[in-house]
Design brief:
With 211 residues, this protein is an alpha+beta fold. 50% of the residues lie in helices and 21% in strands. The chain contains 5 helices and 7 strands; from the N terminus they run αβββαββββααα. The model has no long low-confidence stretch (mean pLDDT 82).
């Protein structure tokens, strides 16, 4: 008498992927997610690269200058020793300046200190005898701020790390994209030829720029 229960079908063992296939999958995964992370970075540096290349564009480039005066409290200088930290913090508190303090100088009867930030500078000149100072502040527009961020000018170590990290991500995106291209048999020759042609064009334009 035949059994009503069908015999279970045997499932063939799954063949392990080759090293080539696993490498391709890994590169696609890495390329996809590094591209997602790098998208805003590419957008920022692309747009600011355009504005940086056209400093004559007027929009967002309003510049303001102001000059103020004040007096530092006693104790900021003892003989020829200036407490630059006290000076910087006092100027921040009195005048609302910002940025990294530096370029300190003590020359006879005058001391000076500068504050730098993207699109911003403030220079203080102090009478060592009286503690009276003159502060010149120059603040540029939003486009100038973005351009300085693009160049990493006066942006501090945190922004410098971000630029380095962005370079690493973009390098990974480029290398994994090139690796994926090598697996595309139908289009890789044309794509590599286009890349080679673009590279030659860049070299020619660079030589023209340097000549």
């Amino acid at each position: 008498m035949p059994s009503d229960t069908a015999a279970p079908k045997s499932v063939p063992a799954r063949r392990p992927r080759s090293l080539k296939a696993r490498t391709h999958v890994w590169m696609r995964w890495l390329h996809t997610y590094t591209s997602m992370i790098s998208l805003l970075v590419v957008l920022f540096f692309s747009l600011t690269g355009i504005t940086l290349n056209h400093p004559d564009w007027a929009f967002g480039n309003a510049e303001t200058r102001r000059e103020t005066t004040g007096t530092l409290p006693t104790g900021w200088i003892e003989g020829t020793e200036v407490n630059w930290l006290t000076v910087a913090e006092e100027l921040r508190a009195q005048q609302g300046v910002h940025g990294r303090a530096g370029d300190t100088r003590l020359d006879g009867t005058e001391a000076s200190l500068s504050f730098k930030a993207p699109g911003y500078s403030a220079d203080a000149f102090i009478d060592t005898a009286t503690g009276k100072y003159t502060l010149n502040v120059q603040a540029q527009g939003g486009v100038a701020v973005l351009n300085d961020l693009h160049r990493g000018r006066d942006a501090g170590p945190a922004w410098a790390w971000l630029i380095d990290l962005s370079g690493v991500f973009l390098t990974v995106v480029s290398l994994t994209g090139l690796g994926i291209l090598l697996y595309l048999k139908k289009s890789r020759v044309k794509a590599l030829a286009a890349m080679l042609g673009a590279g030659v064009l860049v070299v020619v334009l660079a030589r023209l720029a340097l000549s």
